[in-house]
Amino acid sequence: MKAKHVILSSILFSAVAMPMLASASGSSTGGSSVSTTSSTSATKLLGRPGAASQATFVVDTTMKKPHLNIKCGETVVFTNGKDQFAWKFDVYGHRMVNLAQIAPAGFTDSEMKIYVARNDQERS
What we know:
disordered N terminus; 3 helices
C-alpha cells in the first residue's frame, strides 16, 4: 500500500513540478521550422511533440480563440505568425490541456484551453 502512495506522489509531483522547471529553463523557437518542447514525464501525460506532416489541422494562436475541441490521437500544428510547433494529443484520461503547458517558452501568451475527447477507435 505504501508503494502505491509513493508512486502516486511521484506522479503528482512530476505533473506539478516539471512544467515549472521546463518553463524556467526556457526554450526558443526558430524561424519557420517546427520546434517542440522538451519531453518530460509531465508532458507525456498531455501528449507529445508531433510531426507537422501528420497534422489534422493548423491553429493560429494569434486569433485568440478561447478553446479548441479535438479527439485523442490527433496532431495539431500551432503557429504564432512566424514560428510553429506540432503536438500529438495522446492525453491520459482525456483531460483538458492549457496551450501554455505544451508550447515552447515564449511562444504565445494565449490562454487557449484544448479539450481532448475520445476518438472513435477507443474502447469505452
